[in-house]
Each structure stands twice: as structure tokens, then as C-alpha cells.
Amino acid sequence: MVLINLTGIQPTGYTLLADDAQPKEGENVAVSVERLLGENSSFFNTAGGVGAIITTGTAFSDLDRIADKLAFAVIEFPAFGDGRGFSLAVRLRKDFGFKGEIRATGPVIPDQALFLLRAGFDTVEVTTKRKQAFEAALSRFPGFYQSDFGGQTSIAHARHTVEGLGVEGHRKAS
Amino acid sequence: MYAYDTYDHAMVNARVAEFRDQVDRRMKGELTEEEFRPLRLMNGLYLQLHAYMLRVAIPYGTLSADQMRKLAHVARRYDKGYGHFTTRQNIQYNWPKLSETPDILQELADVEMHAIQTSGNCIRNVTTDQFAGAAADEVADPRPYAELIRQWSTFHPEFSFLPRKFKIAITGAAQDRAAVKWHDIGLVLKKNETGEIGFEVLAGGGMGRTPVIAKSMRDFLPVPDMLSYLEAMLRVYNEQGRRDNKYKARIKILIDAMGIEEYTRQVNAEWEKIRHVPIDVPEKEVARIKAFFAPPPLAVSADDVAEVTELANANFIFKAWLNNNAGAHKVPGHAHVTISLKPHGGIPGDASDAQMDLVADLADAYSQGEIRVSHEQNLILPHVAKKDLPALWAKLDEAGLGTANAGLLTDIIACPGLDYCALANTRSIPIAQSITERFDDLKRLMDIGPLKIKISGCINSCGHHHAGHIGILGVDRRGDENYQLLLGGSGAEDASKAAILGPGFNEVGIVDAVEKVVAVYLGEREDEESFLNAYRRLGPDVFKEAVYGTD
Ligand code: HEM
Ligand code: SF4
Fold first, then answer.
1. Which atom number of ligand 1 is nearest to the Cα of residue B206?
2. Are B375 and B462 contained in the same domain?
3. Quick one: CATH architecture of A2-158?
4. Residue B381 shares a structural domain with residue B338
5. Interface confidence: ipTM more than 0.85
6. Domain-embedded: residue B407
7. Per the domain annotation, does B327 fall within a domain?
8. Helices B509-524, B429-438: crossing angle, 10 deg rounding
9. What is this structure's pTM?
10. Count of H helices and E strands in chain B?
């Protein structure tokens, strides 16, 4: 597996915390949403950064109680077509103002690279075999019709500003 | 008409380049069919019974003459010389070669067309009234809103991997010619008491094995709120629509399960959170798009034209065509003209390359270079001066495009069925052909009046049989092709679900049954009563008796 960096964020290194384990002092750990919902503040205080492992079956409203305590989030796609993962990222950014890293894992496909970026993901874990195709996909479209969480404004706006999207498209290479 | 600027061009060109790369990788064996499948499906490329099938979008059914010429060229150069216009205002090519599909898409991109989101679990081509911008009974032209939705939904970062396909239809007239109540979302343009324009919003309609008529969830949504409201509707569906069973994944099932009140409550709650976020499309952009749909410069003239009346009095066929295929235009002295793609004995919705070229030329000569495609699989010239009708008709008639049956019994919708479709139980096209041959008599057809027959070769309902005044559904009965007869459906503003009348028939029996149903109607109707109204008054029993006998 390799990590594709979509936004240029500093990716978080972390340990997957076993079900019965406790975080070491200062350690970055990733933990299921179910477990996090039952943990108290000492858990969050001990760990360096706590990330939620979010399955696509998670209701966004469950994130309400933990979102502001999270350092990062890992959204697991069970299949590339499970579009709930995109809405979960949007919810984190939009409803909870989440600023940390959002990572995608699971069998997402290279042609989804820009969709992930635009929905608010920073990084995506992919098989080494797909790395090149992912990177190629990232530079494919100069602009889109929607303003997005990757920081690009929509074509609809660009049309009415002097700079427009620029020659190369205005997504800054990261 | 909408015209692409550099942004739109860059987008479709990038899409073609991407697809070319994917096809290359497939041809070289770098991608397996399994890996390639989701990619080709995002570009409207299906694998059918005999070959690939390419579905090209005709956004809200509007085409320029040049675009039509390109469709003809593609049919000639890359296919077997014809294309099939569908109930979703798309065109399908049945015989493209995989290696050539990127070239086809590039040629289409050159005339501002694409196959983006014509398949897959995303927001599909937005459909509308084929007479938009021309119909006399219109509140407002729905096309600027359809174009806004097209742009907003294209490559949407959040809504491109929905539980299932998603279809939006929009109409600007009270008489619904776009079947909005049979769509996942239906929008009906209307004016409120203060004269402001907005939409009635309906949700949860759909066909397939569980036919459901959409329910109204908001009586009046102001125009500037359209996209934020759609966003809230889609978000709730994307999050909660079922993904465990594709037959239960459409929004109609979600809304049935939670109830329209609860769905509306959740949508409204989400909308309250996002409606004040600076809307994604600035006002200037809305104005820019609207300007493309400014009414064409048609000179008002008298509605009565002597040459037209004279020819109609002298020639019954022209008179019939005038009556059935020419409709009331906003601008006096003009008509919108339906070119029937339903010649008796022919294949509903098919057009040859030569016919497409001719329609393009006629559009240039008589209709401001504009053409429409209807969900009833016909072509429309939206802006024809009445004085030109005789000349236009003569040219159409000569090319086999003058069939005077728009809206009549032989104006049949039929899906591709077993002739092309890998999912089919039965053939559909030959049934349509047999019925039109059986009723090949214009006087009789006009006596019968408006009657919509719709045929699907399986329960997926691509032929809208649930919405047919007479619906025909192909089922598999122990390996034999069997046809069920349904009565009383409607796809219009008075939408209703057709009901199965009784046991099915073989391919000859179904045509006899249709004839008996029509005979009952003719015997029982009162005054000017239409077939549908007569059925609604009489109920199924008299029809059942006639078709199946008394015992
Ligand atoms: C030949 C290849 C085709 C295939 C494999 C195909 C497949 C399907 C399937 C599987 C459904 C059911 C979707 C669902 O219930 O969720 C469906 C529905 C539909 N298709 Fe097709 N189709 C084909 C051609 C067409 C054509 C040619 C038309 C237009 C004439 C069309 C128009 C529709 C419509 C209107 C529906 C009903 C939408 C609804 O359920 O609300 N399809 N199709
Ligand atoms: S209704 Fe069935 S047979 Fe007809 S095109 Fe659709 S899937 Fe194929």
C-alpha cells in the first residue's frame, strides 16, 4: 500500500488500536467510532491524536459528540461505489468544521481521485499497482462546476471573475 | 440554445482524453473487463446482447441542426446507419466498436455533446417538456433550470456514487409532457400569488418492479433555492438509501419506508443548514445561462393561413398531420411540429442517418436551427411558421417522416427488448410493429383519439408500460415469451399506475387483445370521452369480459 497525498497535508502516522488496548502517552491511534462514543476524556487526553475509523454505515449524527476531539479521520470504503463515504467527508467538513486529515481507505479507484479531493479528503491509501493511475487522474480536469472542499471555486464563479480558472486550471499543484 | 464556453469544452475534452486512456488500457489488457466495467459505465457504454451500446446524452432533449448532423455522421461512420432515440431524451447506438468509442466521443465533444452520466448510479440526463420554450401553455421555459441542474450534477463530488441511478425531470407547463411524477425528483414550474416563479417539488417516483408515483413535498420553492434544495434532497438519499439490494435502492423505496413527511422533515432540516451558504452559482451565471434561452426572433403573424387551410381541405393526410402533429405555439402564426418516428410497421424511435440529416436541414430552413427529442421517442421542430407547414410536410412525407400519428394509438413507446437488450424477457419492437400494422388506418386512429401504448420487454420498464393507457409487459413464462396487458396508466399530470387485466398472451394474442380493448372503448365511450377517461369511468370488468370471455 502507498499513500496518495491529495492536498499536500502532512499525513498522520498512527497505530490501529486493538480492541482491548489503551493508547500510550502521546501516541496517535485510530479507533472505531463505536468505541470512541464510549470513551471518556482521559482516553483522548492520553493519546497524542485520536482518529476515528468511520465505516460508511455510520450516521453522521453519531460524529457530533466526537468530531471536535478528533485529530484525524479514516473513512473506510467497503466498495468504490459506496458513495456514503463522500457524504461523510462532506459532513465532517461542513457540519462539524473539521480541519484535520481525512483519509480514504478501501477499494476506491483512480478515477475517483478528484472526487475524493473535492469532497474533502486529504489522503487515500491505495495499492502500489494503482499509484501511477491515481496520480495521473489528479491532474486530469482543469475545473469543475462545483466549489469544493479542496479549495477550488466552481466554474460558475470563475466565469465571472477576471482571473477565471487560469490557463492550467486554478487547482494549485500541491 | 446553450453554447459551450472554454470551460465546458475543456471539461468534455478532458473526459474524452480520460476515456481514451481507459480504453487503451483495456485493449492492452492492463485492465480486466471487471475493472473496466465501472469506467465504461461512467461513459454510457454498455455491453449488450450482440455488441457494445453507446448512450449519448441530449440534455433536456434540445439539439441544434449541427448536432443532429453529427449524430447522423456517427450513425453512418461508426454504426450501421441508424440510431435509436430513447424515452429519456438520449440517443443509443447499438453497434459501436470499443476501439472507436473514444473517437465517437471526441467527435461529439466537438459539437458540445457527451455521454457523461448516461449510465451508472449518478444523476442522469435531466429531461423536460419537448415543447419547452415553444408551447403556448407554458409558465416559464424550464431549460435554463435544466441546464443549471446539468452543470451542478456533472461530476458532482458527493453525488456520483449514489445507491442507484437518479432521474430528474422538469416541466414548465401545467400539462405535464415530461412524466415528472414518474421520476426520482419532479419539478413543476409555477407562479405564486405574487407572480414570482418557483417550483412544486415532487419526489420518489419511479418505475421498475415497484412502480410508484412521486409525492409532492413542497408546494412552492423559489427559483434561487433550487440547487441548495436539490443538494439537501440528494444528501439525505445518498446517506440513507438502501445499498444492500439494488432492487430496493431507488429513492422511492426510501421514501416509502420513512414516509414522505419524515423525508421532507429531514431534507428541510438539512436545507436550513445550507441554504444561506453562498449559493454555488452567482446570479450573473444564472443570467448568463438564461440568455441562451431567450425566445427566438419570430415575427407575430396571423394564425389563419390561406394556403394551409386550402391544402388541408384538399388533402386528408395533410389535414390529419396538421391536426395531430402540429401544436399551439407561444407566438401567433407559428406551430411546433412533431416528426413521428413511428411509421406503421417500423421500429419506434429509430432514425436513419439520412433521416437525421434531413431533419437537420429542415430545422435550418424552418425552425431556427433547433430540434427537440421527446420522451415519446419522436423529434420536434419547435418553431415553424404556419405558412411553411405545407412545404415542410411535403418534404417529411417524401422521406417517410410524415406519419400523422402523434399522440394516437400507433405513436407507441417501446424499449429495445430482446432484439438488443441483455436483460429482456421478450421482444418489444415486433409487438409495436404488429400493432401499428393492425391499426394502419388513419381515419380509424383519429376516431379512436389520444391513446398511449407503452411496451417494455421486462419489468425494468424502460418502455414506461406502467404509465401506458395501454401497457404491455413482456414476461418469461417457462421459457416462452409472454405478454401481459395493463390498462389505465398515465404519465401526465393525472399520473396513474396501469393495472394488469388478466393472464398474458403470446405475440399474436396480445395484438388481438389490444384490438378488443379498443373495441370496448369505442362501444362504451360517451361523447368526446378519451380512452383513459372511459377506462376510469368503466373500470376493468367490461374490458376483462371482452378480452377473456365471461367465464
Ligand atoms: C438496452 C439497454 C438497456 C438496459 C440494459 C437498461 C436497463 C435498465 C434497468 C436495469 C432499469 C431498472 C432500473 C431500476 O429499477 O432501478 C431501467 C429502467 C429504465 N430505463 Fe432502461 N435499459 C436499457 C435501455 C433503455 C432504453 C432504450 C430506454 C429508453 C427508451 C430506457 C429507459 C429507461 C427508463 C425510462 C427506465 C425506468 C426508470 C424508472 O425505474 O423510474 N432504457 N433500465
Ligand atoms: S425494459 Fe427490460 S427489456 Fe426493455 S430495455 Fe429495459 S431492461 Fe431491456
1. 41
2. no
3. Alpha-Beta Barrel (3.20)
4. yes
5. yes
6. no
7. yes
8. 50
9. 0.93
10. 18, 20
